[in-house]
Amino acid sequence: MAKELESAVERAARVKAHARAVGFDLVGVTGTAVPEAFARFSEAVDKGYGAGLPWLVDEPELRRDVRNVWPAARSVVVLGVSYASEVPGYLEAPPSADEGWIARYAQGRDYHEVVRRMLVQLVRKLGDDAALGAIPSVEHRIFVDTGPVLEKAFAQAAGLGWIGKNTLLIHPGGPGGGGEPYGPVPPASLRKPGEEHGRGAARGSWYFLAVVLTPLDLAADTPETDHCGTCRRCLDVCPTQAFPAPYVLDARRCIATWTIEAPDPDAMVVPEQLGQHVFGCDLCQEVCPWNRRPSRSRHVALRPRPDNVRPALDDLASLDDDAFRARFHRSAVLRVTREHMGKVIKAIRRA
Ligand code: B12
Ligand code: SF4
Ligand code: SF4
C-alpha cells in the first residue's frame, strides 16, 4: 500500500502529474462554480446570443455550479490539448474561389475521440492510485465540449489562460496551467517559437478544453489575468460583426453556428459574409497576436489531414451520403450532414 496523500496540495500535484503523463498540455484545478461567468452566460442567453441552440440555452441552471450536474463534485480539474499546426491559415494563404476552408480544429481526427481517450486514461490512473491507497476510491465524471459546463470560464479560474475579447481561452505560454513550470526549457539554439518558457505549453488559443469533476478535495490554482490590453484585432476582423462588445459573442452571427450548428443553414447564412468557410471559422484566432508563429501540436492524431486543408468545393459537393461519411470518418466534420454542407457550398457559390 502507498502512503495516503494527506493534503489537497499533494493530491493536486499527483493529478497534474498523471494529466501530463497521459499527454495533456495544460492542467489546473479550481472549485465547482464560476459565479461571474455564470452571470455573463445568463445575460448572453437572455439577449438571444445563444442562437436558440437547445443544448446551450436549455436548463441554464445546470451551469450555475457543476454540483447541479453531479452533486458529488468537489473540485474541477481543467485540461487543455493543443491542436496548433503550421499549416498556413485562411488569411495567410487564402483559399481560392474553388476551395473551401475547414476550421483547424476539425482538420485532424475528431477531438472528442482523442481527448476522451486521454480523459479515460487519466481517470484510470486515479483508480490505480486508489487501489494503492494513495487517494480515496471515488468515481469521476469527464467532459469534453458536450456537457453543460462553462469550460472556458473554469479554465480561466484554474489558471490555464484568460478568456480573450474573441471569447476564447488563450494560454499565455510557459507554465502548463496552474502556474507550475511545465517541461524543461530547451537551450536557446533548439527553441521553437512558443517554447520560450518550456516545451509543451505554447501560447495561444489553439487548445481544446476538457474537464474532470472529482469528489477529491484538491488545492485550487490562481486564476489567469487578462492580457488583451488595447488590442481589438479579433473584433475588427470578424466578417459578420458577431461581437456586440468585446468578450461577448452573438452566436446567431458566427460562421461556426451558420456552417455547423444551424438546423437549416439557408435560414441563417449571409452568403456575402461567408467567404470560403464550409465548416467553422478561424479568423478571430488567426489575427490574435498570441497565436503568432504557433508551434506544432505533439498530438499526431490532431494534425491536419492534407485533404482537409482547402478541399476543392467540387469534390465535396459531389459526395453522396455514404461517400461523405467515408470521407469524414472519425472527423468532427460529421457533426453535419452532407445535405447541410451542400447548402453551405451553394451559399458560398451564390455570393
Ligand atoms: C456553444 C459553443 C459554441 C457556439 C458559441 C460560442 C461561444 N463563444 O460561446 C459557437 C457554435 C458559435 C461556437 C464556435 C466556436 N467554438 Co465553441 N463551444 C461552445 C460550447 C459548447 C459552449 C460555450 C458556451 O457556454 N457559450 C455560452 C456563451 C454565452 O458564453 P461565452 O461567449 O463563452 O461567454 C463567456 C465568456 O466570454 C465570459 N465573458 C463574457 N463576457 C465577458 C466579459 C469579460 C470582461 C470577461 C473577462 C469575460 C466575459 O463569460 C461567459 C461565460 O463563460 C463550448 C464547450 C463548453 N462546454 O464550454 C465550445 C468551445 C467554447 N468552442 C470551442 C471552439 C474551438 C470553437 C470555434 C473556434 C470552432 C471554429 N473554429 O469554428 C468557434 C469559435 C467562435 C468564437 N469566437 O467563440 C472550444 C474553445 C477552446 C478555447 N481555446 O477557448 C470549446 C471550449 C470546445 C472545447 N471543448 O474545446 N462554439
Ligand atoms: S469564428 Fe469567425 S464568424 Fe465567428 S466570431 Fe470568430 S471571426 Fe466572427
Ligand atoms: S486578437 Fe487581441 S483582443 Fe482579440 S483575443 Fe487576441 S489579444 Fe485579445
Describe the overall structure.
- With 351 residues, the protein is of the alpha+beta class.
- It has one domain.
- The protein contains twelve helices and eight strands.
- The structure holds cobalamin and iron/sulfur cluster (2 copies).
- The site of cobalamin has 38 residues, from helix 2, helix 5, strand 7 and helix 7.
Task: Give the helix/strand layout.
Elements: H1 8-21, E1 26-30, H2 35-46, H3 54-57, E2 75-82, E3 101-102, H4 111-131, E4 141-143, H5 151-157, E5 162-163, E6 169-170, E7 207-214, H6 233-237, H7 255-261, H8 271-274, E8 277-279, H9 283-286, H10 313-317, H11 321-327, H12 338-350
Parallel strand pairs: 3-8
Antiparallel strand pairs: 1-2, 2-7, 4-7, 5-6
Counting structural domains, the number is: 1
Distance between the terminal alpha carbons, to the nearest Å? 67 Å
Share in β-strands? 5-15%
Which shape, going by the Cα principal axes?
globular
The radius of gyration is: 20 Å
- Supply the number of helical segments: 12
**Which range best describes the helical content: under 10%, 10-25%, 25-40%, 40-55%, 55-70% or over 70%?**
25-40%
Main beta sheet: strand number and arrangement? 4 strands, antiparallel
Low-confidence stretches: 178-185, 193-199
Mean pLDDT: 92
Bound ligand species: cobalamin, iron/sulfur cluster
Order of helices and strands: HEHHEEHEHEEEHHHEHHHH
Strand order of the largest sheet: 1-2-7-4
Number of DSSP-assigned strands:
8
